[in-house]
Amino acid sequence: MILLISTKFTNKINEKNVINKFRKGEISISEAFEYLTNNSNYKLEKEISNTVIKKTSREDLQNINKQEKLNNLLRELDKLVGLEKIKEIIKEYLAFVKVQKLREQYNLKTEQVVMHMIFKGNPGTGKTTVARIIGKIFKEIGFLLNGDLIEAERSDLVGEYIGHTAQKTKKVIDNALGGVLFIDEAYALARGGEKDFGKEAIDTMVKAMEDYKDKIIIILAGYRNEMNSFLECNPGLRSRFAIQLDFPDYSIEQLVKIAEIMYQEREYVLDSESKHYIYRVITKKRNKEGLNNGNARMIRNLVERSIRHQAKRLINNGKINRDNLLYIKKADLPGEEVFYE
Amino acid sequence: MSDCLVTGMPNVGKTCFVINFAEYMGLQELKFYMKQQAGYTSINSYSPEEAMSRLVSANDNFTKNVQSINIEIPAGKTYRRMEIIDSCGLTDGIHHNEEIRKAMAKTLGLIRKSSFILHMIDVLNINKKGEILMPVDRMILKYALKEKKYAILINKIDLIYASNKIEILKQQLHNTIMIPISALYKRGFKEVKKLVLNYG
Fold it and tell me: Which chain A residues are within 8 Å of B108, Cβ to Cβ?
């Protein structure tokens, strides 16, 4: 009798065990059912023979998950309009980091991986977007711990009195460890001349770059010309940033394509009349002001504004159906004033 | 209160059945009790239409939680209360998504615990010879037949007219109760009600 009760009890525990193993991905559903149905010494018999297989299957699962996430991120990168050269360089470095890891596994000599970068380009050319994707990609391949993007500018790094700057900069860097530190308008750090605390911020940063080579990616970003002269004044910096990416301005066609993609993501459709209207407005603006202004950021303003206008129009005229909710008409698009905000 | 677990492969119509059956039993407001991972149970109330649009989808493994509805079945002068439990669909092998694997483990746990199991099989997953095609379905059948009060609901009979193969299957499993239904169009619910009343 006691024996009977105790077998029942162990069976119950074993059943729970089996479900737990299934949850962890160590056994398949058929194995789980096999045990539940037979209630036999299945566990003891199988466990010994399957230990090796189970281990690999769990690792495989994790790898599949990672690969899936990485593929999604690469797809996200590919979806960005233009920037072909940048995409190519990022993929090149991705392969490089992967190969270095593999070489390490085979006990071969490895190159030092330093991923600090300089981004040069006008506002709205995709610098922050690319930085964010880079963070996530390098997290997936295990180079970064969390892949978060921390944005900082001069005022976050430079202090007000002697000694303050180093503290402030260090704090920002500590915060960004394991992810990407994106310093926008980095040339502003050298703006104040010799006596400015900006120099101290640069020095602290350079030291951190050496100390935490494989724990952080520091990206300095800013206008092309300003960044070039900034690097010329600080030759030490130029050699430390191996990767320099140039973000070209978008062509008018690319900007219209970006607008279309933005609408698509929000499940709106641009009719051909509105498309031509956007084309005309951008051309006019480019002719007037040159390339410095009016990149993808102004397109985002335009898209968001037009969506609000469409909503207002629909509520006012009350003609609500699927098509009306979907299409953005010319009347919804704001005039040129949106670009000056 | 007795309980009744609805189980089967993903996308056979488990949630759709639970919602429509509850509505068929006269419920105007469906209160879904969902066990959350943090340990508490949340209650979501829907009208039947709302529940159909929110909880039912054409995608696999849309239900990732165990959710249950309490219904009252008139039995003579009194009512019998019953908890109908909707669960995450089971698939073959090891699922790569951890969340779904966890949900499936919960379903397995429920299959072990529940006293009464309604096993839903897609009519398309039975071939002309009356054989159940999917390994998972065969495993559930094998396990539940041995241990539980058990019935098979053959769903989606609105899609194809398949009385032949259902008859053959019935002959093979002559001790098992088998009800052809259409969860979407509420066909065969009268028999299900009778069954639940007898078994529950």
Answer: 19, 22, 29, 32, 36
In A91-235 the beta strands, taken as DSSP E runs, fall at 117-121, 149-152, 180-183, 217-222
For chain A, residues classed under CATH 1.10.8.60 are: 252-340
Report how many domains make up chain B: 1
Q: Give whole-number Cα distances, A239 to A82, A117, A286, B98, in Å.
A: 28, 11, 36, 44
Residue B148 contacts A where some CB pair is shorter than 8 Å: no
| pLDDT tens, chain A, 341 aa long | 444 445 555 566 677 788 888 888 888 888 888 887 776 444 434 444 444 444 456 666 677 777 888 888 888 888 888 888 888 888 888 888 888 888 888 888 888 888 889 999 888 888 888 999 999 988 888 888 888 889 988 888 888 888 888 888 888 998 888 899 999 888 888 777 666 788 888 888 888 888 888 888 999 999 888 888 888 877 778 888 878 888 888 888 888 888 888 898 888 988 888 888 888 888 887 777 766 555 788 888 888 889 999 999 999 988 888 888 888 888 888 876 655 55
Residues of A in contact with B102 (CB under 8 A): 23
Q: CATH number of the domain at B6, please.
A: 3.40.50.300
Q: Identify the DSSP state of B132.
A: B
What is the pTM (predicted TM-score) of this model? 0.51
User: Measured between CB atoms, which of A28, A34, A65 is closest to B94?
Assistant: A28
Instruction: State the CATH architecture for A82-247.
Output: 3-Layer(aba) Sandwich (3.40)
Domain with CATH 3.40.50.300 in chain A: 82-247
In angstroms, the separation between the Cα of residue A328 and the nearest Cα of chain B is 27
Mutate to test the interface with B, among A31, A33, A38 (most CBs of B within 10 A): A33
- Cβ of residue B108 closer than 8 Å to a chain A Cβ: yes
Who contacts B147 (Cβ-Cβ below 8 Å, separation ≥6)?
A: none
Nearest CA in chain B to A29: B93
Concatenated DSSP letters of A44-79? HHHHHHHHHHHHHHHHHHHHHHHHHHHHHHHHHHHH
Nearest CA in chain A to B146: A37
Q: Side chain identity at A246, as an amino acid letter?
A: D
Helix (H, G, I), strand (E, B) or coil at B80: strand
Q: Looking at domain A252-340, which CATH architecture does it have?
A: Orthogonal Bundle (1.10)
